């Protein structure tokens, strides 16, 4: 999986019917130091992630394993991140963001 | 999924029979600021996207989940984009394109 | 899918038995202006593409959807390209190649 | 598969229910000379790898082949590496790390 | 598929049980001129490839189509290459390597 930050949303009304009701988030991928990478993903959201939150995104066929697995989805937000630790140091803590 | 812009079409008459009747669009991938990336995809179109429209493209096995899923397709246009918002600002609005 | 040009062949006699009889083409990927990219693929050929022809190549599990789908193939030529149009201009026309 | 070094952990409590109980490791990919690459993966751990250990990571649908294969996981640690040999020289030996 | 050169081996005794008995080769990917690319793969070997041999490697779910397809393997050596021809010239011939 990759670590990403929620940066926005994508709306499409004229789409594959099986995608109706799916919320699409625009995610910016982050590197292992938490810096933005020049890559993004549009991912289906099933955990209700909010703007600027760090999330775990699964890609490929893994993204179809939740709900109806015949939807043409190749990226999905599968968790809101609480903490990321690197070399036993906390790189990111969700709670620290709102102090 | 990725955001892309419809740039053209690809026609192949001598092809795998199960691909007969499939329309192939040439898509240029866009970055999260809407700028063209040096990557493109040839994708099957099931939503009738037009030239210069922004679309959502699914890749990998997700692209086979619509219609007969035994067609050798690895990229599919799954939606025409209405709006893309980044940091609560509208980056792209389909209607604005035709004012 | 990607657009590629047939550049050569790869022969392997000592291989996974299910690959017997499969012809392998060496393809150079092309960008959306028809220029060679520094990437290639060795793909199974089911349409009988010839040297220097432009072809459509499918990759990933899509490449196993034709014939026995338990063959360890991850790239397949699925069509010989007639035309590629970009911004309503013909970038490539198969017939023009042989005038 | 890729060779990676365990650099940390990712914790997510608000996540897809099928991911409960899955431990997520932050892995830095290594090149064939054992040097860190600017790429990382968040992978599910099923072998109990420890900090700084070199591991084998499988990605894509392969990562769902162990345990319930309907979990939205796209990267999994599948082995702790004992040795890596390149050109008949030992590049890495787990035991040498702890002399 | 990709063309690669066998550069070494990876040994892991503490691993996913279904991987027992699988030999892992360290492969360096080659470009279409036979030059080493800065990418490698650790691949399961089912054809008994030797050091420095050129091989065909399949990646993704294709790598699980041989033997038990529930093993978490995402790269597999599927053939030892005899010849690679580019623009009707032999780029590589296995027999020439041992003159």
TrEMBL record, chains A, B, C, D, E:
Q: Which SUPFAM superfamilies match?
A: EutN/CcmL-like
Q: Which GO terms describe its cellular component?
A: carboxysome
Give a GO molecular function annotation for the protein. Answer: structural constituent of carboxysome shell
BP terms from Gene Ontology: carbon fixation; photosynthesis
Q: Report the subcellular localization.
A: Carboxysome
The protein's matches in InterPro entries, at most eight in alphabetical order, are given as:
CcmL (IPR046387), EutN_CcmL (IPR004992), EutN_CcmL_sf (IPR036677)
Keyword Cell inner membrane applies: no
Keyword terms: Bacterial microcompartment, Carbon dioxide fixation, Carboxysome, Photosynthesis
Per the UniProt record, one Pfam family is: EutN_CcmL
Q: How does it assemble?
A: Homopentamer. Interacts with full-length CcmM.
To which protein family does this belong?
Answer: Belongs to the CcmL/EutN family. CcmL subfamily.
Q: What does this protein do?
A: Probably forms vertices in the carboxysome, a polyhedral inclusion where RuBisCO (ribulose bisphosphate carboxylase, rbcL-rbcS) is sequestered. Has been modeled to induce curvature upon insertion into an otherwise flat hexagonal molecular layer of CcmK subunits.
Q: What is known of its domains?
A: The tight homopentamer forms a pore with an opening of 4-5 Angstroms in diameter which opens into a wider tunnel at the base of the truncated pyramid. The pore is positively charged.
| Stated name of the protein | Carboxysome shell vertex protein CcmL
Q: Which gene encodes it?
A: ccmL
């Amino acid at each position: 999986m990759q670590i990403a930050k929620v940066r926005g949303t994508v709306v499409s009304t004229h789409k594959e019917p099986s995608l109706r009701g799916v919320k699409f988030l625009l995610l910016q991928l982050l590197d292992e130091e938490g810096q933005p990478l020049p890559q993004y993903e549009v991912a289906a959201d099933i955990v209700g992630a909010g703007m600027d939150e760090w999330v775990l995104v699964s890609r490929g066929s893994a993204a179809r394993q939740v709900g109806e697995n015949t939807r043409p989805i190749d990226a999905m937000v599968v968790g809101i991140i609480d903490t990321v630790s690197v070399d036993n140091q906390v790189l990111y803590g969700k709670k620290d963001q709102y102090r």
